[in-house]
Structures are given as C-alpha cells and as structure tokens.
Amino acid sequence: MSDAANTPATAPQADRPVRACLLIIGNEILSGRTQDANLAHIAKRLNDWGIQLREVRVIPDVETTIVDTLNEVRAAFDYVFTTGGIGPTHDDITADCVAKAFGVPLDEHPEAIALLSRYYPSGELNAARRRMARVPRGGGLVPNPISQAPGFYIGNVFVMAGVPSIMRAQLEGTRPHLAGYKPVVSGTVSAFMGEGRIAAELEALQGRYADLDIGSYPFFKRGKLGTSLVMRGVDPARIEEAAVELRAIIKGLGEEPIEGELADEV
Amino acid sequence: MSDAANTPATAPQADRPVRACLLIIGNEILSGRTQDANLAHIAKRLNDWGIQLREVRVIPDVETTIVDTLNEVRAAFDYVFTTGGIGPTHDDITADCVAKAFGVPLDEHPEAIALLSRYYPSGELNAARRRMARVPRGGGLVPNPISQAPGFYIGNVFVMAGVPSIMRAQLEGTRPHLAGYKPVVSGTVSAFMGEGRIAAELEALQGRYADLDIGSYPFFKRGKLGTSLVMRGVDPARIEEAAVELRAIIKGLGEEPIEGELADEV
Predict the structure, then answer these.
(1) Which of A94, A190, A252, B66 has the fewest CB atoms within 10 Å, i.e. the most exposed one?
(2) pTM score > 0.90 for this model?
(3) Are residues B84 and B110 in the same domain?
C-alpha cells in the first residue's frame, strides 16, 4: 500500500508534531463581559486532526497589538487561528490587521460578495456588510454555512468569527488546508485522595514514562477531595502501561482507583 | 478634604491607567480538558479596583516557555497575575519558574510552613506538600483561607492557584498590594436588529465619543437576531450622553431600544 493510499484526500500528513497558536481578539473577552466558549472546542478539534494547541493569547481590539502579535506568533507556530473581529461594525478590525501584518492590500473578494448578495434581501447588502467580504490579497475563503460571511486564510493564518456557532462551522472548513501529525490521546485514573499523598510516586512514574505528559488535577466531589491523574501521549499502548502502574500505586496507598474523570462539583 | 482622606487604607491610588496581564499556566487548559473559569472573574475584579486586564496568555507547563513569557510580560505591564501550577505534584512548576525568571533562589517560607503544619494532620505534611511553602526569595505570601497553601507575590507578579475557589480567595488577598486608577464603567443598549443596519451610524457615534470604546455584539434570542451595543469608559456621564444618542439612532431606524444586555440563547 502506498503512502498516498493512507492519506485522506482532504488533509495532508505532517512528519513531525504540528503546533498551533490561537488569538482570541476582542475587548469583550478581556473585560469579562463575554466568557470565551471557543478555546476548548478548538483545542479538541485541532487535536483530532493531529495539531497541538500550544499557546493562546487574548488581545484587545487595538491595531498595533493585533498586527505585532500576529507577526510574532505566525513566525513561531505552524498555524495561527484567530477568532473575533470580522463583523460589519467599526470595531471589527481583524481583516485590516491581518492585511497589514502580511503587507498586502485588503480587497473585496468577488466570491464573498456573491455569497453575501444571495444571503441578504435585495438592498440590504450595505457598505458595512460589504466589509465582511474583504480578504487580504492572496488569501482564500473559509466557508460559513451559518450566515454566509466567510472566514479566510492567508499563509499559515486562519481567521474566524467569534460567535461560537459560526466559528465551529468555519473551523471545519479549515480542515483541507491543515497538515496534521499523530493525535494526542489520554487516559485518566482518579481516586478520592489528596494529590499530595501520591505526588512522590507520581513523579517517579513520570520519570519512567518520559514520552508521556502526566498531570495531576484535584477535584471536590460529594464533599470529598479527590485527584484525577491524566496521562497524555501519542501511543495508546504506553498510556495503558502507565495506567496499570498507576492503579497499583493507588491500591498500594490503600485507595481504590476509579477509571476516568469525576466531574468537579466546586 | 485631603487626598489622604480619599485613599482607602488598604490600596494606593495610581495617577494614570494601570494595565495588567494574566498568565493561565496549564496543559489542561490548552488541551481543552478544563474550561478556564478564572479569566472573566479576574477581569471584573481587577476593573473594580481600577486595573485594566489588557492581555491574557495561556501557556503550557514548560519551564522555558513560562520563564521567557513571564520576563516578557512583567516588563510590559504594570502587574502580572498567574493562575495554576502551584500544587504539590511534579507538574506544578510555576514557583520554580518565577524564581528563575527573577534570578533568585526558591526558599521554604517559614510562615507558609507554619500554615501548612496547622492545616495537615500530624505526619501528613510530607515533602511534596512542603513544595507548596516555597517562595522566591524576597517575595511575600498571598493568603489562602480555603486550603491554607498560599499564593505569593514578588516584584509586580502575583502567583495564584488554578482551582477557581482558591484563586478567588487569593485574588482578594492581592488587593492591598495593588494601586488602581479609575474603574471602567459600561452602559449597554440592545435592539432586535442586525449589527450591519446600524454600523454606519455607530461608527460616526464612536467618532464623536473618542473617549469611549463602543463595541457591537450580535446575539440570538427567541429565534431573532439582535445586537448589543456596549459603551465603556471611565466617565459615567459621557456614557449616558452617548446612550441618549444611541437610543435616538435606533428609533430613527424604526426599532425599539432595549436597556441592557439580552442573554444569548445560542
């Protein structure tokens, strides 16, 4: 079987870990008005595709901040995703900033104009709404099946809306342009014990499994303190090996290992 | 009345806007396992105290990343707050990284040891738990009334737990060390109309109120599209002036202005 046969038609494969940065653009997140609802979804979906989210920055609607941040992170990461600031109003400046960062003009994209013309009733595609059809020269559209106004990509930067339902649809549309590596998988063992009791043996376990990231997360449930121990890596067999040892460690401490996460009640 | 009489005993006053950065430290946020629940709370509470949150970074439990990021942002902002990575396990490396960033040793703090000694039953304050009493030399403690293990501060950096209940308690404990300026206040007028319809007049309004930040945020409610228009600034009178004009603009477009936010049902 050739390599080509293993490669999904829509997504190229990378031969090394692929790292992404997310820029959440918007005063409304930084003021606490709006709770971000996109980070966790993007992290999980990118991981499904073999791309690790390695940094997130939340920045205000300020041109110099957006331009400088974008130029810094697009040089440092394989991919950059942005959310927010691509609507029709004066505070939507993301497209302008991406064009400035890349040093290219911001043009009305004919295909985007066609999409918006079909979406809005006759006479309602005004100058403000036409702003949503502007794409930095050389960029391509990311479809938006919810409300038509597209996202776009240029270079390794993918620009999406902040509204979660629209962002999620646009994120799916970026898939054909992304090369992924192996998804990170995880296994979790929990126990009703403080993390301080298992810390020494957990550190030794991490030492024996340098290819895994082992994390310890406390929780409160039914009035009792507990700890979830999460093992992450690209090889499911290694995670199960570590889990076998972890269950034995927990039993050795006189506690009962519980498979998976326990929801936090704090 | 003297200036001193206007100054709360616990908090000094700044004579210019004060800007803060938040570092959310933890693989569990970047993987999407854990939804951050601290950003919005910190943003609002800091604003109550006259401090503007201007950037947030979510970074992994990687020493070089934490040290480099911390040194970058503590030079760029008045204050830096961190959440996460101060527990008893091997993946809790924030205190070590802060000490490295400041180039100072990480010492057991006698007062922190005393707190933990009273909190844990006899014999249970093991080596792992003693890790939580380590503070970079020259730093001070931030109290934790929930589970005693303190946060700490050094220079302009404030280090807190990631568990929301503990973080919230520790944040209150940073208050005496923070100088604030004028809190930003906001006013909101909503209407059941797409933001594209009001965009041109909104931009003109923003032009007339350069001292305010005017943001436009779409929502869906009862199956209808709407827009919340948020005016933010330090002078409530200016916000009310702009709100009067905004209500007139909305009525001029044949719609009914609604005071305040409408909850999003998406």
Answers:
(1) A252
(2) yes
(3) yes
Q: Tell whether A257 lies on the interface with B, counting CB pairs under 8 A.
A: no
* pLDDT(B262) > 90: no
Interface check for B265 against chain A (CB to CB < 8 A): the answer is no
Ranges of chain A with pLDDT below 70:
1-11, 263-266
Specify if B63 maps to a domain. yes
Q: What pLDDT does B5 receive?
A: 39
The CATH number assigned to the domain holding A105 equals 3.40.980.10
Per the CB < 8 Å rule, is B216 touching A87? yes
A219: domain range?
185-259
Distance from CA of A154 to the nearest CA of B (A): 24
Nearest-angstrom CA–CA distance, A134 and A92: 12
pLDDT digits (tens, 9 = 90+) for B175-218: 999 999 999 999 999 999 999 999 999 999 999 999 999 999 99
